[in-house]
Amino acid sequence: MTATTASHPDSAARLREQRAWYFYDWANSAYVTTVLTVLFSPYLASIAETAACGAPGTPENPCTTNLRVLGLPLSPGSLPLYVITATTLLSALFLPVVGAIADRSHHKKHVLGGFAWVGAAAAASMVFVAGTNWQLGVALLFVGNVCLASSLVVYDAILCEIATADERDRVSSRGWALGYLGGGLLLVVNLGLVQGHAVLGLSTDTAVRISLLSAGLWWGAFTLIPFLGLRNRPPVAVVPEHGRFVRQSVGQLLTTLREARAYPMTLLFLAAYLFFNDGVQTVIYASSVYIASQLGLGQTVLIATILLVQFVAFGGALLFGRIAGRFGSRHTILVALWVWVAVVVAAYFLPARQVAPVLLLGVAIGLVLGGTQALSRSLYSQFVPRGREAEYFSLYQTCERGTSWLGTLVFGVVHQLTHSYRPAIIALIAFFVVGFVLLARVDPHRAIRDAGNEPPTVI
């Protein structure tokens, strides 16, 4: 298969588009940090517990009355986890269709903006979730998460249109870095509002609801920058299909899935990403319970660690982008995976009730977190065939979201068997080792050649 060179604008116009593109990371990260990572899950659980038991549960007096959802008894405290799980499963089915629609569309930035603004509206509407109205919270979290995942499929695909092969590590890294910075800045403001609510004459619930509103407004407002700064391009390599647009898109998706076997290195990379990204996500998810339950440290240390990771990841993404420019993104990711193994081993040996070692480990996580995510995106962009970027990035997002339960399942099962979080955290090494072995078998030169793309100077 011969290489095809993507059509890029001149360098000055390309740089302007890249700067505009960065800001969607800045925009949506406010929702990821303030809503998904920190505030909304415990808030929704408290709303559900109030509906079931008349008041939020406490460790001394937990709420034991179940809600009835579609005829099924569900624990109020588990409700946010069930919603996220349902969203993940739906996304695994829905995202490939979104990718096919985007690849056939002449208005890709409009598809991006549409999903972003619907998701932002859902996030902003969380300000109305109060009292016992957990049903509204479930619906809004569902819409926000699906729209976020859908917008990211289109956003990641646009990277291939605005950056040459040699630019993608740098551009992807700067996008991730700006995302960590933006999400961290708003999180600082919102955590300050929640922690200092009494000084402002607000209840805790009101402070949380204002914070949720701010995340939605931030996401929606800053999406204007990429929407206005990016330009639409006509689709390429469109598969001829009959019927209406959606039917044509589904037909193209089926063709893409049948032809995916022609790109074995791309599929092997997805398998590697499935494992090591699951390890990364589980370390992040498990950090709060590990710090609180295993190490005996309080909410203040947890908040400080979250913010530290967020801001260090800004520098980590930029640093790894520069390293990849010299040694190649694949080699840099392989080294990063061994750093993750060291992080997990160090976490196993952390002494209880000692703050400094936790903060030092937070610095290490921040350094490697941004680089792993940014370079995975840019490396994968080299392996996808021209004209199928959004479809293949839908598979990428599906691997990221559709299997993110596996690491948390292993973590939970090992804890249940051993009654300790230390062996549970050390069990996550397996995900990084398997990911490393699979990624080491990926031949990037063959992957790029099979996809018909122009190779970068350094891979």
From TrEMBL:
This entry's Gene Ontology molecular function terms read: transmembrane transporter activity
Q: Which keywords does this chain's UniProt record carry?
A: Membrane, Transmembrane, Transmembrane helix, Transport
Residue intervals of the Major facilitator superfamily (MFS) profile domain: 266-459
Recorded source organism is Actinopolymorpha pittospori
Q: Give compartment(s).
A: Cell membrane
Protein name, UniProt field: UMF1 family MFS transporter
- Cellular component annotations (GO), alphabetically ordered: plasma membrane
- Mind telling me which residue stretches traverse the membrane in this protein? 21-40, 79-99, 111-130, 136-155, 176-198, 210-230, 267-291, 297-320, 332-350, 356-375, 395-414, 420-440
Q: Where is it chiefly localized? A: membrane
Provide the topology term for how it sits in the membrane.
Answer: Multi-pass membrane protein
